[in-house]
Amino acid sequence: KATFFMIGKNITSSTSSNITRDAASGSLDGNHSWDHAQLSKLSAKDIASELSRTDSAIVAAGGVSSGLVRPPYGAWNDDVRNVAAKRGEAIILWNVDSEDWKSLDAKKTTSTVVNNVSAGSIVLMHSIYASTVKAVPDIVHQLRSKGYTLVTVTQL
C-alpha cells in the first residue's frame, strides 16, 4: 500500500485507471495541486482553486478525496495551512527523500530509500521517472525483508 499525491492536470482518461487501481488495492490518492504551483507563493483563493480542482479530478476519475495535501516542493506557509485546514485537509511532508530526480538510477534510488528508512518514515518518490518505477519492487522486497509493513499515510 502507498499514498500517491496526484497533480490534477495529469489526471486524464488514460491515467484514471491508476486511480481506480489505487482505490481497489487500498492505496490512497492525495492532492499535489493542480499544476505543481508553489502554493506558498499564491493567494488563498488560488491555493483553494488548486486543491479543489485536483480533488474534483480525483473523484471524477473514480477515486476518493483523501483529505491529504503534499504541497509541491514541500513549500507551505500560513495561507496554505489555513486553506487546507478550512477544507479539512492535512498537510503531509516526508522525512526520507529518495532523490530519484537527481540520479534517475534505480539502484541508487533503492539504496537511498532502504538505507534511510526507519519506523514511521514517509518516503518521497516520483512515479514520473521510469527508474523510480523500476526501483519500487526491489524497495518493497528489501523493506519487507527487514520487517517493515508498508501502509498509507493515514495508517501511520
TrEMBL record:
Signal peptide bounds: none
SUPFAM superfamilies documented for this protein: Glycoside hydrolase/deacetylase
InterPro entries tied to this protein: Glyco_hydro/deAcase_b/a-brl, NODB_dom, Polysacc_deacetylase_ArnD
GO BP field: carbohydrate metabolic process
Keyword terms of this UniProt record: Hydrolase, Metal-binding
Organism from which the protein derives: uncultured Beutenbergia sp
GO CC term, one of those recorded: membrane
NodB homology domain mapped to chain residues: 1-151
GO molecular function, a single term: hydrolase activity, acting on carbon-nitrogen (but not peptide) bonds
Organism ancestry: Bacteria, Bacillati, Actinomycetota, Actinomycetes, Micrococcales
PANTHER family assigned to the protein according to its UniProt record, in alphabetical order: CHITIN DEACETYLASE 1-RELATED, GLYCOSYL TRANSFERASE-RELATED
Pfam families reported for this sequence: Polysacc_deac_1 (PF01522)
UniProt KW Hydrolase keyword: yes
Name the record gives this protein: Polysacc_deac_1
